[in-house]
Amino acid sequence: MSPRTVFSPYARIFAAVPGSLAFSFAGWLARLPMPILGLGAVLLVEGETGSYGLAGAVAGTLALVGSLAGPQWARAMDRRGQGRVLRIAFTGYLAFGVAFVAAVVLGAPQWTWFALAGLTGACGPNIGSIVRARWADALDADGRQTAFAFESVVDEVVFVVGPPLVTLLATLINPPVGFLTGVVIGFAGAMWLSGLRESEPPVHPVDDSASRRASVLLHPTVLIVFVVYLAVGTVFGAMDVVVVAFAGAEDVPALAGVALAAYAAGSLVAGLVYGVVRLPGTLATRFVGCAVFFGVAAQLLLAVGSLPVLIGVGFVAGLAIAPVLVSGMSLVESRVSRSTLTEALTWVVTGLVLGVTAGSAIAGATVDAWGAERAFAVPAVAAALSGVLALAAAPLLRRVPAAEPADAPSTGPGILSR
User: Fold this and answer.
1) Domain range for residue 51?
2) pLDDT on residue 212
3) Burial 124-160 (b: 16+ CB within 10 A, else e)
4) Does any domain span residue 85?
5) pTM of the model
6) What pLDDT, on the 0 to 100 scale, is given for residue 118?
7) Which of 90, 229, 357, 395 is within CB 3.0–4.6 Å of 60 for a Cys-Cys bond?
8) CA 359 – CA 380 distance, rounded (Å)
9) Cβ 288 vs Cβ 324: under 8 Å
10) In the chain, % of residues over pLDDT 90
11) The CATH number of the domain where 225 resides is what?
C-alpha cells in the first residue's frame, strides 16, 4: 500500500471540514496529559515513597474519578455547548493538578494525595470524544470511519510522545516537572479548543422531564462496548505500571517511556491502515473480530524477559490497539442519536479509564508481591478477557438496530458525499 493510498483519505476529510485542522490539533494538545498524568503520578509517588502499590493506587484514583465525571461533562456539553464547559472544567484541572504535586512534594498527609488526584481527574473531560463529536457532525459514514481512525492515530501519537517525555523529565530533572508539564499542556490545548466555536456540534436542549431520562449507558451497544473496554483499559493501566517497574528492575528506568512508546507506535501504524481499508462484515462483526485479535496479540507479553524483547513484543501487540478502539467507537456512533453522541462516546471511554484504574492498582500490587516480569500476566489475562467478552456479546450485538434515520448528522448525507 503506497503512502498516497494511505494518506489521501485523511487529506480529503481535512479539506472537506472547515476548521478541522485547528480543532484536531488543539484536541491533540488537550489530550496529551492522558499518558503523562497517569505515568507521571506513578513516577512522582513512587519516587517519594518507594511503593509501586501506593503509586498505582494514586494514579488509579485520578483515572477512576475522571472516568466517573467524564460522562457528566459530556452530557453538559451536548446541552450547553463544548466551549463553555471546557473552560470551566480545565480551570479546575490546572488548579488541582498543581495542588496535587505540591501536596506530594511537601509531604502532606497521603489522604490529600488521593483527594487532589481525584479532583484533578474529575476536572478533565474526555477530549477524544469531544473532537470525534465534531467530526461526526460534519461527515458521512465513510468519512466518519476515516476521521475516527485518524483520531485513534492522534491518541497513539499522544502515547508515543507522552511516556518518553514524562519519564525523561521525571528522571533527568525531577518527577514533579513531568506531571506539571502534562497539566500545563492540557490546559493550553483545552483553552484553544474551547475558543473554536464555529466547529462545535449544535447544542441539543432538553426539557426538565427529558433531563431525567435513563443514561445512554443503558443502550445495549454502549453497554457492551463499555464492558469490553473495561478489560481493554485494564491492559493499558497495567502496562504503565509494569513497564516502569520492569525498566527499573533492568536498571534503565529512563527507557520505560521508549517501551511504552513502541507499544503505542504499533497502534499508530495499525490505525493509519484501518482508516483507509474497508473490511468486510458489519460494524459489529469488525468490533468482535478486533477484540479477539487484541486478546490474542497481548499474549506475547508473557514472553518478555528483557527490555529489547519488551520493545519488540510491545510494538507487535500494539498493532491490535487502534482496530479495537476505532471499531468500538464506530459501532457506538452508528447506533445512538446525535443528541447523546458525545455522552455515548464518553461512556465507552469511561470504560477504558475505569479499566486503567483497575489495571494500575492490580499491577502495582502484583509487582510488589511477585516482581515486574511475572506481573506481565496482568495485561495478558485482561486482554484475553476482552476477547472473550466480545465473543459472548456477539449475538446481542447482531440484534441491536442502527440509529434511526432522523438521528443522522445535521449535514444530511455528509460533506464527503457531495
Assistant:
1) 19-203+214-404
2) 47
3) bbbbbbbbbbbbbbbbbbebbbbbbbbbbbbbbbbbb
4) yes
5) 0.72
6) 93
7) 357
8) 11
9) no
10) 28
11) 1.20.1250.20
Kindly compute the dihedral angle of the four CA atoms of residues 153, 155, 159, 161, in this order, to the nearest 10 degrees.
Answer: 80
**What's the one-letter identity of residue 100?**
F
- What is the crossing angle of helices 52-80 and 341-370, to 10°? 180
H/E element, 74: helix 52-80
Q: Per the structure, how many domains does the chain have?
A: 1
Q: Please state the rounded mean pLDDT for residues 147-155.
A: 79
User: What was the pLDDT predicted at 249?
Assistant: 86
At 215, list the grid cell: 443514561
User: What was the pLDDT predicted at 343?
Assistant: 80
Residue position matching grid coordinates 470525534: 132
Please give the Cα distance from 202 to 78 (Å, whole number). Answer: 8
Of 79-83, 207-211, 413-417, give the lowest mean pLDDT range.
Answer: 413-417
Cell of 56: 498505582
Q: Is residue 398 part of a domain?
A: yes
The band of 347, judged by pLDDT with boundaries at 50, 70 and 90, is confident
Going by C-alpha positions, the residue among 229, 259, 17 that lies closest to residue 160 is: 259
List all residues 6 or more positions away from 115 whose beta carbon is below 8 Å from its beta carbon: none
Q: Above 90 in pLDDT, residue 94?
A: yes
Confidence of residue 5 (pLDDT cuts 50, 70, 90): low
Question: 355 with 231: CB under 8 angstroms?
Answer: yes
Q: Would you say residue 411 lies in a domain?
A: no
> Could you give the C-alpha distances from 417 to 12, 142, 143, 281, in angstroms and in order?
11, 9, 9, 22
Rounded mean pLDDT, 330-355: 81
Q: pLDDT > 70: what percent of the chain?
A: 90
Record the cell numbers describing residue 339, joined without a space.
Answer: 443528541
- For helices 33-49 and 256-274, the axis angle rounded to 10 degrees is 160
C-alpha cell at 249: 528492575
Please state the φ and ψ torsions of residue 212, each to the nearest 5 degrees.
-95, 15
Q: How would DSSP label each residue in 231-288?
A: HHHHHHHHHHHHHHHHHHHTT-GGGHHHHHHHHHHHHHHHHHHHTT---SS-HHHHHH
Give one DSSP letter per residue of 133-188, joined into a string: HHHHHH--HHHHHHHHHHHHHHHHHHHHHHHHHHHHIIIII-HHHHHHHHHHHHHH
Cell of 225: 462496548
**Angstrom distance (rounded) from CA 320 to CA 317:** 6
In a domain, 412, yes or no: no
